[in-house]
Write a structure and sequence with these properties.
Layout: E1 2-4, H1 5-11, H2 18-28, E2 31-36, E3 39-43, H3 49-52, H4 55-66, E4 88-90, E5 98-105, H5 114-122, H6 130-142, E6 147-150, E7 158-162, E8 168-170, E9 176-178, E10 184-188, E11 191-195, E12 199-200, E13 212-219, H7 222-232, H8 237-242, H9 250-265, E14 269-277, E15 285-289, H10 290-297, H11 303-312, E16 316-318, E17 327-331, H12 342-353, H13 374-388, E18 392-393, E19 399-400, E20 420-421, H14 426-436, E21 443-452, E22 457-466, H15 470-484, E23 490-494, E24 499-504, E25 507-516, E26 519-525, H16 526-536, E27 548-557, H17 562-571, E28 577-586, E29 595-604, H18 613-631, E30 634-635
Parallel strand pairs: 4-7, 18-21
Antiparallel strand pairs: 1-3, 2-3, 5-13, 5-14, 6-13, 7-10, 8-9, 10-11, 11-12, 15-17, 16-17, 19-20, 21-22, 22-26, 23-24, 24-25, 25-26, 27-29, 27-30, 28-29
């Protein structure tokens, strides 16, 4: 926002050079982006528009920072009221909490004084005529936007209402706008006179022949102004201020200052005034505790010093006795809408004290070891193992198109082809394999990420393989991967010729399926895997009793999978079984190409006693019988 350095010097006599002024304001208040000629571009944060987006507000800041006095023309005027010259109806006081109208009679419009023109030009505004120029000048001074109507061009009372659907208005710069019923307007019987808070209309424009004017200063709901400004693509100085939120109390300040300048510059006579207001916000009073402040900031300020800083910014100190002698009450100025709690007051004090003047003090905190995150550790271990298996990690978008994501549609998508959240990692890996199929004869990729449902999100990892006998290799990779993670009970159950279910400890971890003879994909639930890994790796004291191992070699039909054999053994419900592993696999029978030879090692151990050979043999025979009867195995 542009400020006139000349006007600031007039309002705060004694401020330093523009360069020094900019340096200090940068440190203690706002960022000065540019200072060329007589103009200063100062960045006002949205929460400070109500008070600091004006020369009076910036003057108050400068006076507090440089310990100077302000010279503001804010003396109250004796304004007549209730004479019946101006009539205003506000239909919605939520949309327009305050509407102030001053009725003035003009003898001659005349010329705008050079000192007003100079300030307008410093701030990037074009002088037009004394009435319009004074409205703009007062907006720059006080921060309150104003508008002037030619009273003789009005048709009856002024009405603040929402526009009719399709209602049109021609603005001061001869642009036509079509309004909706959500746009607020200032109107009379004949239609809209202005787009409230944004732009005046042509019909009641002030010109050189104007004899009677109505000065409007109002407060409008910031959300309404913002929506209209965006919809009609019209940003003005007024809309920029109203859309960020102004104080309802600034309307009377602006109207009084404008009437005073009209009286001074063009000898206008204030004849009547009217204020239409809803319920205005009450006084904000906050307790400031010096001990709490010093503990929070790390200073040793006294009660008087803290109070002086706040008084210099326009806060009123209430000397009412409180129980805590180091506390006092602070009444917040009506325009300081950003100050609502103690911490806001503390920030005001410390920035005037000087943030750069705070001495660094190490925090008094206890040091604790860094906590270990199990899911992070598991992901790290997965990446290490899979890279060792020759895999490359890929990252796909969580946002996908409709055919990949069933029904999880986003209300505000980032792109037309990213309107849905993924429910699976497999879709992305399929696309990766397809896109890279022409470039690579073999491919091993994996992804770790989140998938989404209507109720929650879930961590998963997926593997994709493109190579001869892909499904067989993928099964072996998954088996070795889970073993490396510490799992011992691993079961892969065939669901069909193209897919299998992956289980451990009776929990379904995921599925693997074949895309074609050379491509396969598996997807596992990382959250479920984590629980089993933690359980498997929990510390358990070693049994003091020895284990007994038995190897069983069998010949099975070629269509029997290793997972089926393990499933049969698991279903026997053996006593004292500790582990079952495949230790040998042989399929080169010259006499019979249709059969396989497998050898498994069964480990038995009791936590309560030393097992006898007879007890182990009894359990072992159960296994032999089950394998013969259920999968036609021949025990060797």
């Amino acid at each position: 926002m542009k400020f006139s350095y000349s006007l600031l010097k007039k309002l705060v006599p004694g401020i330093p050079s523009k360069e020094k002024f900019a340096d200090v304001i940068n440190l203690k208040a706002f960022e000065v982006e540019e200072a060329t000629g007589n103009s200063m571009e100062i960045k006002i944060t949205p929460n400070r528009f109500a008070d600091a987006a004006s020369h009076w507000g910036m003057a108050l800041e400068a006076a507090a920072i440089f310990n100077l006095k302000t010279k503001l023309d804010d003396k109250p005027l004796n304004i007549p009221k209730g004479k019946g010259k101006v009539r205003v109806v506000v239909e919605n006081k939520h949309a327009c909490p305050v509407y102030v109208a001053h009725y003035l009679e003009v003898v001659k419009i005349g010329e705008t004084p050079a000192w007003i023109k100079s300030v307008l030009e410093d701030c990037g505004l074009r002088p037009i005529n004394p009435v319009v120029d004074i409205m703009n000048y007062v907006m720059l001074e006080t921060g309150q936007p104003l508008h002037a109507f030619d009273a003789d061009k009005l048709d009856g009372s002024i009405v603040v209402r929402f526009a009719k659907q399709g209602e049109k208005i021609v603005s001061l710069d001869n642009h036509s706008y079509t309004l909706t019923k959500e746009d607020l307007v200032i109107a009379d019987k004949s239609g809209a006179l202005a787009i409230a808070g944004i732009k005046g209309g042509k019909r009641a424009e002030v010109d050189k022949n104007t004899k009677r004017i109505i000065v409007e200063a109002a407060n409008f709901n910031q959300a309404n102004i913002y929506k209209t400004m965006k919809r009609i693509a019209l940003q003005t100085d007024a809309s920029m201020r109203f859309s960020r939120g102004l104080s309802p109390y600034s309307a009377s300040i602006g109207a009084n200052r404008a009437s005073g300048l009209l009286k001074e510059v063009i000898k206008a006579k204030v004849v009547d005034s009217l204020v239409v207001a809803g319920k205005l916000p009450g006084k904000e009073i906050i307790e400031f505790n010096t001990d709490k402040f010093n503990s929070l900031i790390g200073l040793s300020l006294g009660k008087k010093q803290a109070a002086d800083y706040l008084k210099s910014l326009g806060f009123k100190i209430i000397t009412k006795a409180l129980k805590n002698k180091n506390s006092f009450l602070v009444e917040v100025p009506p325009l300081r809408q950003d100050v609502t709690i103690f911490e806001d007051l503390a920030e005001e004090v410390v920035r005037l004290y000087g943030v750069n003047d705070l001495k660094p003090t190490p925090p008094l905190v206890g040091l604790v070891p860094v906590e270990s995150d199990d899911i992070v550790n598991l992901k790290k271990e997965l990446r290490t193992i899979l890279v060792g298996f020759g895999f490359s990690e890929v990252y796909n978008y969580s946002f996908v198109d409709k055919k990949e994501a069933d029904s999880l549609e986003l209300m505000n998508p980032i792109a037309e082809d990213k309107k849905y959240l993924r429910v699976s990692l497999s879709h992305g890996l399929k696309s990766n394999i397809t896109l890279n199929a022409r470039e690579f004869a073999t491919l091993r990729i994996f992804e770790i990420g989140k998938v989404f449902s209507t109720k929650n999100e879930e961590a998963r990892f997926a593997l994709g393989v493109k190579e001869p006998e892909a499904m067989l290799h993928l099964k072996g990779i998954i088996s070795q991967l889970l073993k490396r993670l510490g799992l011992t009970d691993i079961l892969m159950k065939d669901e069909s010729n193209n897919s299998l279910t992956i289980k451990s400890d009776g929990v379904v971890l995921g599925v693997a399926h074949s895309l074609n003879s050379n491509s396969a994909i598996a997807e596992l639930n990382l959250d479920a895997l984590l629980k089993i890994v933690i359980a498997e790796n929990e510390y358990r004291p070693l049994s003091k009793y020895p284990s007994i191992s038995r190897d069983i070699s069998l010949v099975v039909p070629r269509d029997i999978k290793v997972g089926q054999v393990l499933e049969v053994i698991d279903d026997v419900n053996l006593n004292h079984i500790q582990n079952v592993d495949l230790i040998d696999y042989f399929d080169n029978f010259e006499d019979d190409k249709s059969r396989l030879s497998l050898t498994f090692r069964l480990v038995f151990r009791s936590e309560e006693k030393t097992l006898t050979d007879e007890e182990v043999d009894k359990e072992f025979k159960k296994v032999e019988a089950a394998l013969v009867s259920k999968i036609r195995a021949v025990i060797r």
